[in-house]
Here is the input.
Amino acid sequence: MAGRLAILLLGTWLAAAPAGVQSPAAEPVERGTLPASWVTGRSCPETPPFRIHEYNADLFILRQSGCTNFEKPFLYLLFGERSALLVDTGAQKADVAGAVGQVIERWSARHGGDPVSLVVVHSHGHGDHIAGDAQFTSRANTTVVAASPEALTAFFRLTGWPETSASYSLSGRTIDIIPIPGHEPASIALYDRRTGLLLTGDTLYPGRLYVRDGAAFAASIQRLVAFTRDKPVAHILGAHIENTRTPYLDYPEGTTYQADEHALELGRAHLLELNDAVTQMRGPIERRILRDFTIWPLVRSAGP
Ligand SMILES: [Zn+2]
Ligand SMILES: [Zn+2]
Here is the structure.
């Protein structure tokens, strides 16, 4: 009986979707590509400070080279119709304004050469994500939003940090801003509705997820799970890679050249795995090594 029902259902499905015919439904997200490897810094004199990858025509990923700083952070540059949004300015010792300016010029040339205004925001306020800010403060047509809950609340018109998210229009491109304190008080996630990319900074990436405020972190992860429940998530992209391709194994802190590093991209399943682990702890966050990342509470110092 069950077998006959399955055959009947299969027959119905085949009739509805004949081989070779595309579904007329709209594409869920605008697609892009990621490189097979982001390895950088093998031979330093020849390595440029940033590797620039075109995910698609309107979204670029920049990775700072390990030759300039062991943190090797990832930066994201998204374009609306006539403006751009830069997420993070990198760690010290790199000409980030030069690299970003080069991408903006190329993009502008493809779009009639009009000037492009730039908004600079940060996944959070740690030094390896804001060190290049000074290079943008005097740039023409540029707004730098400070990495503080107050500045983010004012710029994105957030109501009730951190419980509420806000949507931001980058000249026609809608990006959701979701406050996720815990790693750092001004941590945010950005969700790009066009590509379905969720940018999570240092809160979720293939590496050591340092947790400074456990209660805030747990609540933030739950909010991210709820936020993504009814949305397409193409990739979850964080700000570092510290794990190797071998499950449960990370590189020691300070490694500049990672020949066999983990892929940058994670999926929503990783977010659910993180949420499960944190929820099971029922209280203080404990160090836990998972397949692709490690939850790592930071002990508060007794001093002021
Ligand atoms: Zn950080
Ligand atoms: Zn970082």
About this structure: The CA atoms of residues 182 and 215 lie 7 Å apart. The longest helix spans residues 2-16. The chain has a mean pLDDT of 91.
